[in-house]
């Protein structure tokens, strides 16, 4: 496809008066991410080259590059171009703290970021200023109020949002017109067609497509060319292992379509986007002039309705393998929950390494499975001071951490239970909170705990007292985030009023769903993440006591759902789930986990295992795509009123969340 004589037209982005080139330029890659960062001189050269060919919309953000390198580089390029001919877009919202990435949308932070970006870019105004991700702890009306003031002061011209939900966009637009939303949109990321695009068209809001080439996939990254050593794509779910091998088939089909239309695969992918409407502006980036010319060539590709259908058919969304976002995601930036806490989409529950459902395994073997999980992208590891004889589990996890990069791990542990000869009890006094935390830090041999839960609620101590001490531990740097486990709605609300709760850990699986009625709605209201323990029904959906016998040491032999007539009746449920899994070409545990994963990005299952084959099987759940019909059929296969036996061991049943409140202070 001939590129060098193509005229890049100009279009309205939204209905607020902003006019931009039909194709923009994403500058992020000039400062690394998918390849090595390039010198400022080279970056300025490619930006100027893009401008000379008719591109006038340039996109950056304050988070791109080390020490805001990308904005500084773009600012240098602007000094060599006519400012009034450029539409400059940048973003605020993310912040880095050590290895953590969080999101902030307070009015003070909005202004602080804008002033800093203006200074780094060396400009008097920003054309289009986006909130990069939504801060679920701050009303969007507050964030927009400050952005509106910046418009009135002339520091920004137009306001945008990125990765915002329909509700957030509507509410923001009511404060001040939104000019554009920036969303991932490409041949293999099309979910915004269902909700965001119709809303934007209703309100006259433009759509800027980031990742329009599927993070370089449709340009051949990892397919026709190897990934650079520095590329973060090496840990992206769609670019790794079996997922990549399966996705290559999609690339080959797109390549065949491109050959039929006498263009290149990236031109076809961009042309498909351009044909979705003049209100959609792709912003592909590159460090190479030949790729820039190739991208511009997409504007000359003409597609018929039949072509568009054939291209979509070549990329069936349900055949795309792997999530669209990096395994380590800021869930809060995507959906509500896990405030400013980056975790892998799937965690690892360590308790089973020290017994309970099977014999405990040696520390060397336990460390090996933890390291294996980490090597496959799992970074959230969950333990507790109760697990194992003499706190064995925390000690084992501590040994594993010594063999892993601590700053890449999200370590969760818990306090609250105590054992005496006669009973198991719960204690939440401030003194006990501190005593347990100090002991866990010592056993784990770490300086801090990422997420520290109260394991069960002490009904004799006001939650405000327990939280007061946990808040002090946060201030002292001994813990980073606070969680609750098996807490009821009232307790969570009162705790959250003392200090933000990052996550609640609750039993949640196909056969334990009561939290859908009260806990999940509350957590979404408050921006609290949900960690699902026993996501496989204590191994039931993995076949425990059905396709394999219970080990002699297993406590499941006394669990109400795994004994006698209850077990026999529950086997019918397993059989139905197994049939559903067969229909969807996955295993029963993959189906059970995939069902959970489809309940929302704010829900993080933490299955555990002692076997690598089970670990791999669990991770495979991330590639299982379920439709609304599938989800309904799976629920119908497990009617809650047909599940036989209580969900908890009798000794722990008195601590279940609905009967465990704390006294008022």
Automatic annotation (TrEMBL):
Report any Pfam family annotated for this entry: Aldo_ket_red
Q: Which residues form the NADP-dependent oxidoreductase domain?
A: 22-311, 345-634
> What name does UniProt use for this protein?
NADP-dependent oxidoreductase domain-containing protein
Q: Where is the signal peptide?
A: none
Which Gene Ontology molecular function entries are recorded, alphabetically? oxidoreductase activity
InterPro entries given in the database record: AKR (IPR020471), Aldo-Keto_reductase (IPR050791), NAD(P)_OxRdtase_dom_sf (IPR036812), NADP_OxRdtase_dom (IPR023210)
Q: What keywords is this UniProt entry annotated with?
A: NADP, Oxidoreductase
Which SUPFAM superfamilies does this chain map to?
NAD(P)-linked oxidoreductase (SSF51430)
Q: Name one GO cellular component term.
A: cytoplasm
